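agent> Task received from the user: take the single chain below, predict its 3D structure, and emit structure tokens. No templates, no multimer pairing.
agent> Plan: (1) validate residues, (2) run structure prediction, (3) serialize to tokens, (4) report one or two observations.
agent> Step 1 OK, no nonstandard residues flagged.
tool_call: predict_structure(input=
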Amino acid sequence: MEKVEVIEITLREDERGWVAWPMEEEDLRHTLISHVHVPHLRPGAVRGNHYHRHSTEYACVLSGPCKAVFEDNETGEQQEITVPGDKPVLFKIAPNITHAFKNEGTGEVFLMCYEKRADDTDEPDLYRKSIL
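)
tool_result: status=success, residues=132
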């Protein structure tokens, strides 16, 4: 699905684990980033099941295993991606794409999410739609 992009993020690993940079410096300096949040999913839990009309959402799955499901609200096309959890995966989700994440494992799953908008309004831009 071309409206969902998996972005390669800077990742450094050593014997202690990894460190990830899910936001580029350029974006932090010159882009309106809003609604930064860290969802936590217990085993079997689902987060998301919504879309945005005006915002592009970035969702970084920090642990796993986690199932990510995306649906194009215009075409009905669906895409499912399993994130094993051995390293972070960053998704760039275009407006009007419903997205949901499910913890497929026995441990906890964490995401780090934020939105980019073309305008600077504070109006809510979250519309519920259940796909998972």
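agent> Step 4: summary for the user.
The first helix runs from residue 25 to 30.
agent> Done.
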